[in-house]
Amino acid sequence: MNTFLEVFMQRREELVQLLLEHIQMTSAAVLISICIGIPLGILVTKNKKVSSVVIGIANIMQSIPSIGLLAFLVPVVGIGQKPAIIMVIIYALLPIIKNTYIGITGIQQSAIESASSIGLTKWRILYKIQIPIAMPYIMAGVRISAVTAVGTVTIAAFAGAGGLGWLINLGLNANDADLVLLGALPACLLALVVDFVLGKVESALTPEGLKPVDQITNRTKAERKRRTVMAVCLLVLILVVPCFTSVYSVFQRKEEKIVIGSENFTEALILGNIYSQLIQDQTDIKVEEKFNLNGTMITMSAMERGDIDTFTDYTGVLISNVLKEEMSSDSKEVYDRVKTGMEENYSMQVSDSLGFSNTYVFAVTPETAAQCHLTKLSELLAQAGSLKLGCTTAFTQREDLLPKLKKEFQVSFKEVNGLEGNIRYQALTSGKVDVIDAFETDAILKKMDLVKLEDDIEFFPPYQAVSITRNETLKKYPQLQEVMDMMEGAITTEEMMDMNYQVDVEGKTPKETAVEFLKEKGMIE
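The structure corresponding to this sequence follows.
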């Protein structure tokens, strides 16, 4: 509890900003969902076949994994709040459409016929009879959508939209439960507050005759009108006002600036902050940060659209995932092909290496290393049949990794377990697996004092860190080239691991770590 309070005090200002972003995106998505869902729910009551199709489509859309839907939207609408809001709208529509449809169609036909017989038009019947009677169902759908939206918006951080998901992602990267809680607890509390407020709105809008007997209150016409006005004001307060601020921030006119992107892991966040601080210090160019993008696919889509201007990645990732070329173990050959390919295919400039490589390594505990006499990869391969491997699914699938070990070296581990992120480290230390795949600069290797096995057979592909910048940006800001060149060869593998350690283990922010590094190197004052 003490450590959580310390983290809260250190990041309270950041937390408030992220919470406001979260509220803005949630409000915008829910309000738009209400504006679409309720009219659509009413319209489909007129035709049963159409209602089946519409509700079926909404069901299908909601079944799509949120992160996959976000990845699909980014190439179409870009990064930031736009794809996040659209994603949440899609998820929020089903409960509203379905509940509106059920509420309207559940009204007894005799009530409609009676209203029609006294001369009410269809619109007056809808406004005076159907909507008030269906209101409990409609509001139940809105409440479900709103609470679900609060949770779904946490995924928005993976498209550079901010929100409380940013803190959750930082915590997951650093294996820091306090950071995860710092993002998760406010999201839970926000969901409870939203549900409570909408519950009061539902109570105010529901006709007294439709409430349970113990909740019915005799009120004058003026009191009922006043409660309705208050309910509308509450809706405006929690949905409309934040929505307009969010929509304004999404569609405001673009300023002259450089947008720096980064992927959603510690090392990328540190490097993004290094470039951001260096450019701001060395030039008068305005810098915007779009960090925490979920992988190279989303980042490259943002680069192609011009949503970001520069980011850092690795030659091994670029040649296999972006250029779709065959991997090689020759680092110079891979770099040259990446530099040429990115220029020719994407009009993007690849810098010289930043000075370090973050390639794959196999890691074992000191006890396993001593027991099996392991220091090199060749020694591991000789004993693979008696060892259990824990590795990422990418490691098991990529042709230049585990499949290549099996094909070219006839290596077969005793057992292969697909494990993601920090779970594989926990499996290693608990004895569930004997060896894991890791990246050379992972801070957790240092934290757990694990043994990295030397790649004496030069098996693993090269992963030199480089920056990628759009040619259009370099032409627009020629002074940027000199600043980008300052980082070439500036970081050693040991320095990068130490910076990762400061963030993941010591609890410093990526920005603090980046500033300290630049000051130590004399690059900024």
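Residues 2-43 form the longest helix (42 residues).
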